[in-house]
Specification:
The chain is mainly α. It is built from four helices and two strands. Strands 1-2 form a two-stranded parallel sheet.
């Protein structure tokens, strides 16, 4: 963020560098849906490992994504810009097929699904 900021308008982020993933297609599409016009040239670093991705963010390499609560509680990072809506992602709740019908597992699944809605 120190490289190019400060970012006062969403359009300013179109010239920023981001940390992406090996397959950035859905990431770029999601960012476009929230009003950012980015392409592969905006991504200086790519990683399929979320821990590596977050480590790059925490080191100040570039802009990346993380669950908002984690980002807010990490003193090494700051939100790039207020007013940008959260980036939507799919969340899956999975288990081994034999456990899926277990009453206790089902209860936990149902609780998690309700909590994430």
């Amino acid at each position: 963020m120190k490289k190019h900021g400060p970012y006062k308008r969403k359009a300013d982020l179109n010239r920023a560098d981001f940390i992406g993933f090996a397959d950035n297609t859905r990431y770029i599409e999601g960012l476009k849906k929230i009003g950012l016009d980015l392409d592969i040239d905006n991504f200086a670093y790519l990683s399929d490992n979320h821990i590596a991705h977050w480590s790059l963010v925490r080191s100040g390499a570039d802009i990346g994504v993380m669950m908002e609560k984690i980002g807010e509680e990490d003193p090494l990072v700051e939100k790039v810009m207020k007013g940008i809506p959260p980036f939507p992602v799919e969340t899956w709740v999975v288990s081994h097929r034999e456990l899926k019908t277990n009453r206790r597992i089902r209860y936990v699944f149902d609780f998690l699904v309700e909590a994430f809605l």
